[in-house]
Protein backbone atom coordinates (compact mmCIF):
# COMPACT_ATOMS: atom_id res chain seq x y z
CA UNK A 1 0.00 0.00 0.00
CA UNK A 2 1.21 3.51 -0.84
CA UNK A 3 1.81 6.31 1.66
CA UNK A 4 -0.51 8.67 -0.22
CA UNK A 5 -3.46 8.34 -2.59
CA UNK A 6 -2.35 8.35 -6.23
CA UNK A 7 -4.81 9.39 -8.94
CA UNK A 8 -4.82 7.39 -12.15
CA UNK A 9 -5.82 8.64 -15.59
CA UNK A 10 -5.66 7.83 -19.30
CA UNK A 11 -3.83 9.37 -22.25
CA UNK A 12 -5.34 8.36 -25.60
CA UNK A 13 -3.93 9.01 -29.07
CA UNK A 14 -6.90 7.35 -30.82
CA UNK A 15 -4.48 4.77 -32.23
CA UNK A 16 -5.72 3.39 -35.57
CA UNK A 17 -5.34 -0.38 -35.82
CA UNK A 18 -4.88 -2.12 -39.15
CA UNK A 19 -8.26 -2.86 -40.73
CA UNK A 20 -10.09 -0.37 -38.50
CA UNK A 21 -11.74 2.78 -39.85
CA UNK A 22 -11.37 6.17 -38.18
CA UNK A 23 -15.05 6.11 -37.26
CA UNK A 24 -14.52 2.78 -35.50
CA UNK A 25 -11.40 4.14 -33.83
CA UNK A 26 -13.30 7.11 -32.40
CA UNK A 27 -16.04 4.80 -31.13
CA UNK A 28 -13.39 2.61 -29.49
CA UNK A 29 -12.08 5.70 -27.69
CA UNK A 30 -15.58 6.51 -26.47
CA UNK A 31 -16.11 2.92 -25.26
CA UNK A 32 -12.81 3.08 -23.38
CA UNK A 33 -13.71 6.40 -21.78
CA UNK A 34 -17.09 5.03 -20.70
CA UNK A 35 -15.42 1.98 -19.15
CA UNK A 36 -12.86 4.24 -17.43
CA UNK A 37 -15.70 6.38 -16.10
CA UNK A 38 -17.04 3.34 -14.27
CA UNK A 39 -13.78 2.24 -12.59
CA UNK A 40 -12.49 5.42 -10.99
CA UNK A 41 -10.16 7.02 -13.53
CA UNK A 42 -9.70 10.73 -12.79
CA UNK A 43 -9.29 12.08 -16.32
CA UNK A 44 -9.23 11.05 -19.97
CA UNK A 45 -6.83 13.08 -22.06
CA UNK A 46 -6.37 13.14 -25.82
CA UNK A 47 -3.06 14.08 -27.43
CA UNK A 48 -2.71 16.32 -30.47
CA UNK A 49 -0.79 14.72 -33.36
CA UNK A 50 -0.77 15.38 -37.10
CA UNK A 51 0.09 13.62 -40.36
CA UNK A 52 0.10 10.09 -38.96
CA UNK A 53 -1.86 7.13 -40.30
CA UNK A 54 -1.67 5.52 -36.89
CA UNK A 55 -3.04 8.42 -34.80
CA UNK A 56 -6.57 9.80 -35.04
CA UNK A 57 -6.50 12.56 -32.41
CA UNK A 58 -5.54 15.43 -34.72
CA UNK A 59 -8.74 17.48 -34.20
CA UNK A 60 -8.28 17.19 -30.45
CA UNK A 61 -10.92 19.59 -29.12
CA UNK A 62 -13.62 17.98 -31.28
CA UNK A 63 -12.82 14.50 -29.94
CA UNK A 64 -12.81 15.88 -26.41
CA UNK A 65 -16.39 17.04 -26.98
CA UNK A 66 -17.42 13.59 -28.21
CA UNK A 67 -15.87 11.89 -25.18
CA UNK A 68 -17.32 14.40 -22.70
CA UNK A 69 -20.79 14.04 -24.24
CA UNK A 70 -20.68 10.26 -23.89
CA UNK A 71 -19.43 10.11 -20.30
CA UNK A 72 -20.78 11.23 -16.94
CA UNK A 73 -18.13 11.83 -14.28
CA UNK A 74 -14.61 11.57 -15.66
CA UNK A 75 -12.70 14.74 -16.53
CA UNK A 76 -11.87 15.07 -20.23
CA UNK A 77 -9.17 17.19 -21.78
CA UNK A 78 -6.00 17.61 -23.78
CA UNK A 79 -2.69 15.98 -23.11
CA UNK A 80 -2.07 18.18 -24.78
CA UNK A 81 -2.92 20.94 -27.15
CA UNK A 82 0.33 21.89 -28.89
CA UNK A 83 -0.08 25.62 -28.37
CA UNK A 84 2.46 26.87 -30.96
CA UNK A 85 0.20 25.30 -33.62
CA UNK A 86 -2.71 27.56 -32.63
CA UNK A 87 -3.92 31.02 -31.80
CA UNK A 88 -4.37 31.32 -28.01
CA UNK A 89 -7.63 33.19 -28.64
CA UNK A 90 -9.10 30.29 -30.65
CA UNK A 91 -8.00 27.71 -28.06
CA UNK A 92 -9.54 29.79 -25.28
CA UNK A 93 -12.80 30.01 -27.23
CA UNK A 94 -12.83 26.26 -27.96
CA UNK A 95 -12.12 25.20 -24.39
CA UNK A 96 -14.27 27.90 -22.87
CA UNK A 97 -17.15 26.53 -24.93
CA UNK A 98 -16.33 22.97 -23.81
CA UNK A 99 -16.18 24.18 -20.22
CA UNK A 100 -19.66 25.67 -20.51
CA UNK A 101 -21.11 22.57 -22.16
CA UNK A 102 -19.50 20.17 -19.65
CA UNK A 103 -19.06 22.15 -16.40
CA UNK A 104 -16.17 21.22 -14.07
CA UNK A 105 -15.06 18.37 -16.34
CA UNK A 106 -12.72 19.92 -18.93
CA UNK A 107 -8.90 20.15 -18.63
CA UNK A 108 -6.57 22.13 -20.87
CA UNK A 109 -3.08 20.63 -21.02
CA UNK A 110 -0.65 22.74 -23.04
CA UNK A 111 2.57 21.65 -24.74
CA UNK A 112 5.12 23.38 -26.96
CA UNK A 113 6.13 20.58 -29.36
CA UNK A 114 4.66 20.41 -32.88
CA UNK A 115 3.21 16.92 -32.46
CA UNK A 116 4.39 16.04 -35.96
CA UNK A 117 7.30 16.27 -38.42
CA UNK A 118 8.96 19.52 -39.46
CA UNK A 119 7.30 19.75 -42.88
CA UNK A 120 3.84 19.32 -41.34
CA UNK A 121 4.65 21.81 -38.57
CA UNK A 122 5.47 24.36 -41.25
CA UNK A 123 2.21 23.55 -43.04
CA UNK A 124 0.27 24.14 -39.84
CA UNK A 125 2.05 27.38 -39.02
CA UNK A 126 4.93 28.88 -41.00
CA UNK A 127 6.28 30.72 -37.95
CA UNK A 128 6.16 27.65 -35.70
CA UNK A 129 9.67 28.06 -34.30
CA UNK A 130 8.99 31.64 -33.25
CA UNK A 131 5.68 30.57 -31.69
CA UNK A 132 7.41 27.78 -29.77
CA UNK A 133 9.95 30.26 -28.39
CA UNK A 134 7.01 32.43 -27.27
CA UNK A 135 5.34 29.55 -25.40
CA UNK A 136 5.39 31.26 -21.94
CA UNK A 137 3.81 34.39 -23.43
CA UNK A 138 1.21 32.32 -25.28
CA UNK A 139 0.29 30.47 -22.07
CA UNK A 140 -0.18 33.81 -20.34
CA UNK A 141 -2.54 34.89 -23.12
CA UNK A 142 -4.63 31.76 -22.48
CA UNK A 143 -4.76 32.60 -18.78
CA UNK A 144 -5.76 36.18 -19.57
CA UNK A 145 -8.58 35.09 -21.90
CA UNK A 146 -10.02 32.86 -19.15
CA UNK A 147 -9.82 35.65 -16.57
CA UNK A 148 -12.87 37.73 -15.69
CA UNK A 149 -10.51 40.74 -15.66
CA UNK A 150 -10.17 40.42 -19.42
CA UNK A 151 -13.72 41.73 -19.84
CA UNK A 152 -12.36 45.27 -20.13
CA UNK A 153 -9.83 44.41 -22.85
CA UNK A 154 -10.23 45.16 -26.54
CA UNK A 155 -9.72 41.50 -27.55
CA UNK A 156 -11.80 39.00 -25.57
CA UNK A 157 -12.71 35.32 -25.56
CA UNK A 158 -16.16 36.00 -24.17
CA UNK A 159 -17.09 32.30 -23.95
CA UNK A 160 -14.03 31.64 -21.76
CA UNK A 161 -14.14 34.46 -19.22
CA UNK A 162 -14.65 33.04 -15.74
CA UNK A 163 -15.11 29.47 -17.00
CA UNK A 164 -13.44 26.82 -14.83
CA UNK A 165 -10.99 25.02 -17.14
CA UNK A 166 -7.78 24.13 -15.24
CA UNK A 167 -4.48 24.53 -17.10
CA UNK A 168 -1.69 21.95 -17.06
CA UNK A 169 1.81 22.42 -18.45
CA UNK A 170 3.15 19.43 -20.36
CA UNK A 171 6.80 18.67 -20.95
CA UNK A 172 9.23 16.11 -22.33
CA UNK A 173 12.41 17.96 -21.30
CA UNK A 174 13.28 20.33 -18.47
CA UNK A 175 12.20 23.58 -20.18
CA UNK A 176 8.52 23.41 -19.27
CA UNK A 177 9.33 22.43 -15.68
CA UNK A 178 10.63 25.96 -15.06
CA UNK A 179 7.50 27.49 -16.61
CA UNK A 180 5.04 25.29 -14.70
CA UNK A 181 6.85 26.06 -11.45
CA UNK A 182 6.94 29.82 -12.00
CA UNK A 183 3.25 29.92 -12.83
CA UNK A 184 2.20 27.58 -10.02
CA UNK A 185 0.47 25.19 -12.42
CA UNK A 186 0.30 21.37 -12.39
CA UNK A 187 3.09 19.71 -14.38
CA UNK A 188 2.68 16.60 -16.54
CA UNK A 189 5.79 14.85 -17.88
CA UNK A 190 5.68 12.67 -21.01
CA UNK A 191 7.75 9.87 -19.50
CA UNK A 192 5.87 7.27 -21.53
CA UNK A 193 8.26 8.11 -24.39
CA UNK A 194 10.67 10.83 -23.17
CA UNK A 195 12.36 9.08 -20.27
CA UNK A 196 15.76 10.76 -20.01
CA UNK A 197 14.88 13.94 -18.13
CA UNK A 198 12.01 12.75 -15.92
CA UNK A 199 13.73 12.90 -12.53
CA UNK A 200 15.58 16.14 -13.30
CA UNK A 201 12.39 17.82 -14.55
CA UNK A 202 10.43 16.77 -11.46
CA UNK A 203 13.21 18.08 -9.21
CA UNK A 204 13.32 21.46 -11.01
CA UNK A 205 9.54 21.83 -10.83
CA UNK A 206 9.34 21.00 -7.12
CA UNK A 207 12.35 23.13 -6.18
CA UNK A 208 11.21 26.23 -8.09
CA UNK A 209 7.45 25.94 -7.50
CA UNK A 210 5.67 29.18 -6.62
CA UNK A 211 2.19 28.87 -5.05
CA UNK A 212 -0.60 30.38 -7.13
CA UNK A 213 -4.32 31.05 -6.99
CA UNK A 214 -4.96 27.60 -8.48
CA UNK A 215 -2.33 25.50 -6.67
CA UNK A 216 -0.78 25.77 -3.20
CA UNK A 217 1.87 23.07 -3.64
CA UNK A 218 3.43 21.17 -6.57
CA UNK A 219 1.26 18.64 -8.39
CA UNK A 220 2.96 16.19 -10.75
CA UNK A 221 1.65 13.77 -13.34
CA UNK A 222 3.76 11.21 -15.22
CA UNK A 223 3.02 9.13 -18.30
CA UNK A 224 3.65 5.38 -18.19
CA UNK A 225 3.00 2.65 -20.75
CA UNK A 226 0.77 0.00 -19.24
CA UNK A 227 -0.23 -3.38 -20.70
CA UNK A 228 -1.97 -5.75 -18.28
CA UNK A 229 -3.48 -9.15 -19.09
CA UNK A 230 -4.43 -12.29 -17.19
CA UNK A 231 -0.90 -13.71 -17.52
CA UNK A 232 2.60 -12.41 -18.19
CA UNK A 233 2.66 -14.46 -21.38
CA UNK A 234 -0.56 -12.97 -22.75
CA UNK A 235 0.56 -9.45 -21.89
CA UNK A 236 3.86 -10.06 -23.68
CA UNK A 237 2.02 -11.27 -26.78
CA UNK A 238 -0.27 -8.23 -26.80
CA UNK A 239 2.76 -5.96 -26.35
CA UNK A 240 4.27 -7.06 -29.67
CA UNK A 241 1.99 -4.54 -31.41
CA UNK A 242 3.54 -1.74 -29.34
CA UNK A 243 7.10 -2.88 -30.02
CA UNK A 244 6.42 -3.16 -33.75
CA UNK A 245 4.92 0.36 -33.73
CA UNK A 246 7.98 1.79 -31.95
CA UNK A 247 10.36 0.02 -34.33
CA UNK A 248 8.40 1.37 -37.32
CA UNK A 249 8.55 4.86 -35.83
CA UNK A 250 12.31 4.67 -35.29
CA UNK A 251 12.96 3.30 -38.78
CA UNK A 252 10.71 5.84 -40.51
CA UNK A 253 8.25 3.21 -41.76
CA UNK A 254 5.10 4.59 -40.14
CA UNK A 255 1.97 2.53 -40.47
CA UNK A 256 -1.23 1.69 -38.62
CA UNK A 257 -0.91 -0.51 -35.55
CA UNK A 258 -0.34 -4.15 -36.46
CA UNK A 259 -2.05 -7.12 -34.79
CA UNK A 260 -0.08 -8.96 -32.09
CA UNK A 261 2.07 -11.96 -32.89
CA UNK A 262 3.88 -14.54 -30.80
CA UNK A 263 7.11 -13.00 -29.53
CA UNK A 264 9.91 -14.06 -31.89
CA UNK A 265 13.60 -14.15 -31.04
CA UNK A 266 14.21 -11.47 -33.66
CA UNK A 267 11.58 -9.14 -32.21
CA UNK A 268 12.79 -9.81 -28.68
CA UNK A 269 16.33 -8.94 -29.71
CA UNK A 270 15.25 -5.71 -31.39
CA UNK A 271 13.08 -4.79 -28.37
CA UNK A 272 16.21 -5.05 -26.22
CA UNK A 273 18.07 -2.49 -28.36
CA UNK A 274 19.30 0.42 -26.26
CA UNK A 275 17.25 3.02 -28.19
CA UNK A 276 14.01 1.06 -27.79
CA UNK A 277 14.78 0.29 -24.16
CA UNK A 278 15.44 3.95 -23.40
CA UNK A 279 12.24 5.08 -25.09
CA UNK A 280 10.17 2.43 -23.28
CA UNK A 281 11.99 2.60 -19.95
CA UNK A 282 8.77 3.29 -18.08
CA UNK A 283 6.75 0.53 -19.74
CA UNK A 284 5.11 -1.99 -17.44
CA UNK A 285 3.87 -5.22 -19.04
CA UNK A 286 2.48 -8.36 -17.43
CA UNK A 287 -0.13 -9.81 -15.14
CA UNK A 288 -1.67 -7.76 -12.34
CA UNK A 289 0.93 -8.92 -9.82
CA UNK A 290 3.84 -8.17 -12.14
CA UNK A 291 2.64 -4.69 -13.12
CA UNK A 292 1.63 -3.85 -9.57
CA UNK A 293 5.21 -4.35 -8.36
CA UNK A 294 6.62 -2.27 -11.21
CA UNK A 295 4.12 0.56 -10.75
CA UNK A 296 4.62 0.67 -6.98
CA UNK A 297 8.37 1.03 -7.48
CA UNK A 298 7.86 3.80 -10.05
CA UNK A 299 5.56 5.77 -7.72
CA UNK A 300 7.91 5.37 -4.75
CA UNK A 301 10.88 6.46 -6.87
CA UNK A 302 9.28 9.49 -8.52
CA UNK A 303 6.81 10.49 -5.76
CA UNK A 304 4.37 11.69 -8.42
CA UNK A 305 0.80 12.57 -7.53
CA UNK A 306 -0.88 11.02 -10.57
CA UNK A 307 -0.17 8.41 -13.23
CA UNK A 308 -1.27 8.89 -16.83
CA UNK A 309 -1.55 5.40 -18.32
CA UNK A 310 -0.92 4.91 -22.04
CA UNK A 311 -2.01 1.57 -23.50
CA UNK A 312 -1.26 1.41 -27.21
CA UNK A 313 -2.34 -2.07 -28.28
CA UNK A 314 -4.22 -3.50 -31.25
CA UNK A 315 -7.56 -4.75 -29.96
CA UNK A 316 -10.11 -2.43 -28.37
CA UNK A 317 -11.42 -5.11 -26.00
CA UNK A 318 -7.91 -6.00 -24.84
CA UNK A 319 -7.28 -2.31 -24.23
CA UNK A 320 -10.39 -1.89 -22.10
CA UNK A 321 -9.51 -5.02 -20.11
CA UNK A 322 -5.96 -3.78 -19.54
CA UNK A 323 -7.25 -0.45 -18.24
CA UNK A 324 -9.79 -2.21 -16.01
CA UNK A 325 -7.04 -4.40 -14.52
CA UNK A 326 -4.83 -1.34 -14.07
CA UNK A 327 -7.66 0.38 -12.18
CA UNK A 328 -7.78 -2.65 -9.86
CA UNK A 329 -4.02 -2.34 -9.33
CA UNK A 330 -4.30 1.32 -8.42
CA UNK A 331 -7.25 0.72 -6.10
CA UNK A 332 -5.25 -1.98 -4.31
CA UNK A 333 -2.18 0.26 -4.03
CA UNK A 334 -4.41 3.03 -2.68
CA UNK A 335 -5.86 0.63 -0.11
CA UNK A 336 -9.30 0.55 -1.67
CA UNK A 337 -9.18 -2.85 -3.36
UniProtKB/TrEMBL annotation:
What are the UniProt keywords, alphabetically?
Answer: Oxidoreductase
GO cellular component terms attached to this protein's record: cytosol
Q: Where is the Luciferase-like domain?
A: 18-301
The parts of the chain that form a coiled coil are none
Q: Which GO terms describe its molecular function?
A: oxidoreductase activity, acting on paired donors, with incorporation or reduction of molecular oxygen
Q: What InterPro entries would the database entry show?
A: Bact_Lucif_Oxidored (IPR050766), CmoO-like (IPR019949), Luciferase-like_dom (IPR011251), Luciferase-like_sf (IPR036661)
Q: Superkingdom, according to UniProt?
A: Bacteria
Keyword DNA-binding recorded = no
Pfam families referenced in this protein's UniProt entry, alphabetically: Bac_luciferase
Q: Which family does it belong to?
A: To bacterial alkanal monooxygenase alpha and beta chains.
Q: What is this protein called?
A: Luciferase-like monooxygenase
Source organism per entry reads Acidiluteibacter ferrifornacis
Amino acid sequence: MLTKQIAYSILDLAIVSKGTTLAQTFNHSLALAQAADEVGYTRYWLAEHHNSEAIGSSATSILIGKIAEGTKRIRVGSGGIMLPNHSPLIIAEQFGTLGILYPNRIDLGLGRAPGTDQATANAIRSDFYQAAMSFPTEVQKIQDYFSIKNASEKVRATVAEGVDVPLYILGSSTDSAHLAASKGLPYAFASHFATTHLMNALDIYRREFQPSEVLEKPYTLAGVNIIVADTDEEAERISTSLYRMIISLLTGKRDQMQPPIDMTEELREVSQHSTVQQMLKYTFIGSKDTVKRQVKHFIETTEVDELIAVTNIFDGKDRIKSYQLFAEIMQELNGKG
